Amino acid sequence: MSSNNGVTSIRLRGSNPGLSTMLPGLNTLSAQCATLGSFIDEAIRYLASARLSIMTIDYHAGTGELTLMVRG
Question: DSSP secondary-structure letter at 33?
């Protein structure tokens, strides 16, 4: 899935077993956000609502892959 913000795929990493349930919501947010910055802002809010904190963000512009390391 490619969006206007350049993100083609999202990966969540962490030890929380429920991370896979967060991916559909993040993909929906990515499709709605026009810039990478606005998507990151919305992703922080979305994950915080599930009591998850983003520890690191890794974005590869060439592939469009965004990896979020989360804790919680």
Answer: -
